[in-house]
Amino acid sequence: MNISGNTILITGAGTGMGLIAAKVLAARGNRVIMVARDAERLRREAEALPGTLAYACDIADAGQVDGLLDWVRGNAPELNVLFLNAGVTHTYRLFDGTDAARNARLEMLVNFVSAVDLTHRFLPLLESRPNPALIVTTSGVVYAPDTTNPTYSATKAALHSYVQSMRYRLKQVDSPVRLFELVSPLVDTPFASGVKSDAKAKPETVIAELLRALEEDTFDIRPGSSQALYEAWRADPEKAAAMVNEVTGA
């Protein structure tokens, strides 16, 4: 994949890895569309990046996604890359009195259902453009759950499965869209602030690895500890589970 000269929409672009990705990709000569819920933060960050657009949207709200799609058609119809990076989590332990069902509903809606919605809405637009690509951020917890973020782990496992289904179907219908999965390690961002660990990767490191993998057309991208976890999971799932939960202090 050529990582310059694209028009790239990034969800969850207001903070963390999404913001770092927006900065790096804009510096590489891409037109970046930053999407997140916080309109003021998004505006400030986008103004610092030449040629970057911002659109405030709650991707869990179907009506707001309607507005986003219409806006893209009118303002960036050349869009050829969709980077689904937004997510939400709750750090807690099962059976500790926390309303796990409430957490799961929100996490599933943001982390999984919105990804299904966005891919179905944007795929026809992407397929009409040169060099189309879809990038989806999952997590190392697709191999073994973090029991301090239990329902989040389940949503990412669902998303990982959906990526596999999409990849199979895109190949089956001979779609030009290339589908990349970024299996993120634990990253030092506001998103993971509730997880106390000394093993957090720098977001800049993860995004640098993402760009290298995109250039090499490596479709399963496992930066840092995600690769080690994948190898452990293949060898011994119980060992993989212990690795995850040792890092998060479960």
Automatic annotation (TrEMBL):
<protein>
    <submittedName>
        <fullName>Putative oxidoreductase</fullName>
        <ecNumber>1.-.-.-</ecNumber>
    </submittedName>
</protein>
<dbReference type="GO" id="GO:0016491">
    <property type="term" value="F:oxidoreductase activity"/>
</dbReference>
<dbReference type="InterPro" id="IPR020904">
    <property type="entry name" value="Sc_DH/Rdtase_CS"/>
</dbReference>
<dbReference type="GO" id="GO:0016020">
    <property type="term" value="C:membrane"/>
</dbReference>
<dbReference type="InterPro" id="IPR036291">
    <property type="entry name" value="NAD(P)-bd_dom_sf"/>
</dbReference>
<comment type="similarity">
    <text>Belongs to the short-chain dehydrogenases/reductases (SDR) family.</text>
</comment>
<dbReference type="InterPro" id="IPR002347">
    <property type="entry name" value="SDR_fam"/>
</dbReference>
<dbReference type="Pfam" id="PF00106">
    <property type="entry name" value="adh_short"/>
</dbReference>
<keyword id="KW-0560">Oxidoreductase</keyword>
